[in-house]
Amino acid sequence: MMLAVSLISTVSVLSGCQTTTRVPASGAVGELWNPFAPASMRVYPLTHLDRDDNGRARIVAHLDLRDAWGESVRGVGMLRIMLYRPASELSGRLDEQELAWDIDLNDLELNTSFYDRATRTYRVPLAGVPTWVEEMVVAQESGRSLDRRLRLVTTLETLGPRGAERFLRDEFLIEQ
Q1: Is the pLDDT higher at 118 or at 4?
Q2: Would you tell me how many other CB atoms lie within 10 Å of the CB of residue 11?
């Protein structure tokens, strides 16, 4: 009799812990491949010029991925970050692309190494910058202004919620 009472009370307690899952009204989860796939990417304002441990100039890009609900998410895909040197306003030319870094975020170990849990962004150090970026770092360290800027253009080729290819893009200016 004691065993039966104990068993009944255990079942009653466990049934009280049951949770229900709500599905968004706009579609059933079963028809989506990954409902939390990145829907947007933003070069986050924490992006800055810096030096690495060996004293070499670099750009540290912070990338924020958001799902369709506007929540921070991680993503996979091919990330490309392009550095543009602004053309003179007097020349009438377009900015010139100087460098590009290709980062395979499909490599999950590499992906995880770039993800910064504190900021919930991908923190991507970009090394091998040209001399004119080095000059911007030196000016920044000495508190001088060069009246110079650089432009980063980022693209991420990833997959959307239903597995179709998605192309995310953003730009960011660093002014010195």
Answers
A1: 118
A2: 10
Share of the chain above pLDDT 70, in %: 78
Predicted confidence at residue 156, as pLDDT, reads 98
Residue 99 has pLDDT above 60, yes or no: yes
Query: 154: which strand partners?
Result: 81, 170
**Coil, helix or strand for 97?**
strand
pTM over 0.85: no
Are 72 and 65 in contact by the 8 Å Cβ rule? The answer is yes
Q: What residue segments make up the domains of the chain, in order of their start?
A: 29-175
- Architecture of the domain whose range is 29-175: Sandwich (2.60)
d(CA 145, CA 77): 37
Q: Is 166 helix (H, G, I), strand (E, B) or coil?
A: strand
Structure tokens that stand for 35 in this block:
């409902």
Mean pLDDT of 65-84: 97
Rounded Cα distance between 154 and 176, Å, is 20
The CA distance from 122 to 43, in Å, is 9
- Radius of gyration of the CA atoms of the chain, in A: 24
